[in-house]
Amino acid sequence: MTVLHQIEASIPALRRYAHALVRDRDRADDLVQDCLERAVANCHTWRGDGPLQAWLFRILINRHRDLQRRTPSPGHLVAVEDLRAEPSHSGSQDCHLDLREVHEAMARLPYDQREALLLVVLEGKSFDEAADMLDIPKGTLMSRLARARAALRILTGRPSNPPGLGRVPVPNRSQQS
Amino acid sequence: MTRTPPVTDEELLAYLDGVLSVEDFDHIQSRLAADPAYSATVAEWSRQTAALQALYQPVAKEQVPERLTRVIHLTEANAAMHPGVRIASGSRWQRVAAVVALLCVGTAAGWFAHAMLLAPGVAGNLASDAMQAHATYVVEVLHPVEVAASEQKQLETWLSKRLGHTIRPPDFAASGFVLMGGRVVPSDQGAAALFMYDNAQGQRITLYVAPQGASATTAFQFAKSGPIQSFYWMDRDLSYAVVGAIPRDDLRRVALAAYDQLI
Predict the structure, then answer these.
(1) I need a surface site. Which of A152, B87, B141, B224 has the fewest CB within 10 A?
(2) A164 in the Ramachandran plot: left (φ > 0), alpha (ψ -120 to 50) or beta?
(3) How deeply is B19 buried, as exposed, middle or buried, from its count of CB atoms within 10 A (0-12, 13-18, 19+)?
(4) What pTM does this model have?
(5) Which 8-state DSSP code applies to residue A125?
(6) Crossing angle for the helix pair A52-70 and A25-42, nearest 10 degrees?
(7) B66 contacts in chain A (CB < 8 Å)
(8) How far apart are CA B204 and CA B214, in angstroms?
């Protein structure tokens, strides 16, 4: 596969990530298009020293950060330290989270946490890969992940010390494909 | 010293991600059992994972908008014809306009660019002409070939007559490439033949056959122009070039198959 073909094959993953990060279809596709244009204009500079997809994600993330700096989004991004537990919904121990609620909660996560969480959870990147793509040490990545998860938990109104505890579920090792 | 050390967030994340060794996994699991709050956290986090995947995974299954694939296809066509030209940075529309302009003047300018870039001489022209023909026709969606492989007999008769030599398209099935068809293309020496093949991934390669031979059969030579590569050689009557943007070893295999079958 040529570099261009590899870039093309990565478009679905780039769109998925961009849509989850930006949360607006047109703006997400604008971001992907911007990323692709930069990638094809610079693919002679890609030295093949790592997965091409990681390089593309790095371009996309950097591009998104640039755009954020230029036009910061309205201020509902809150640090988890400033959050207080919202009232618990009835039946909050359900097996499934309300998707709409999670989608709303994601909007309130700071971008650095969103970037990290989506790379691992949605794109199935390992901690090392994600840290590399975000250009941060692994420890920083882990703390962003933990903060993102804690914030989501509060934002979806599921207190951290609920009564009536179940057994530890054994995560499926092949889940993160 | 039977007190269990607390489980850190980092350990919980690794546990959830399934990246621990069996030993660490079991070890953490036994410590998790010490405090029910841990199990609640792990359960909640895996629900988050499931929710995020359910929310956002489907986007990757959607049809990619044409404006995104166009970025790749325009570049591909442009790179094929203008290996030396780098598109200047500028606004998206400036860049698109630049590509379109290059495509319009492509045939003539591209030919000269190739002729200058490649080694002078007949063999250089052969590779250059073959790559130019490849770049011109592989991007065709509606009319990549003039006569389809379904009419192979007619194709052979027609091209043999135009080249003045019996010519049959070789079989590249062993490399996964199937004949799509062929067409006549111009060359310095008169009509040349271009056969196009594709594989299951939709990659296309071409075999170019021009009506000029060498005094003796020449060895394989290799040329590269941007992503496009070519192995070419000559026998007494005809010159051949296998062209494609596939890995060099794959292309060499195809070229060897062609050589064996055409000799």
Answers:
(1) B141
(2) left
(3) middle
(4) 0.54
(5) -
(6) 120
(7) none
(8) 28
The ipTM (two decimal places) reads 0.81
b/e map of A118-136 (b: 16 or more CB within 10 Å)? bbbbbbebebebbbbbbeb
CA B7/CA B5 separation, integer angstroms: 6
Supply the angle between the helices A11-22 and B36-56 in degrees, to the nearest 10.
120
The dihedral over CA atoms of A113, A114, A115, A120, expressed in degrees to the nearest 10, equals: 90
Q: Do B72 and A40 touch (CB under 8 A)?
A: yes
pLDDT tens, position by position, B113-169:
433 333 334 566 888 889 989 988 888 877 889 899 999 999 999 999 988 888 999
Torsion over CA of A129, A132, A133 and A135, rounded to 10 degrees? 160
Q: Which of residues 16-35 of A touch B (CB under 8 A)?
A: 16, 19-20, 29, 32-34
Count CA atoms closer than 13 A to A58's CA, side-chain side: 16
Quote the DSSP letter at residue B34: T
B48 vs A15, A95, A102: nearest CB: A102
- Name every chain B residue with its beta carbon within 8 A of the beta carbon of A12: 59-62, 64
- A108 CB within 8 Å of a chain B CB: no
Q: Are B146 and B183 in contact (CB under 8 A)?
A: yes
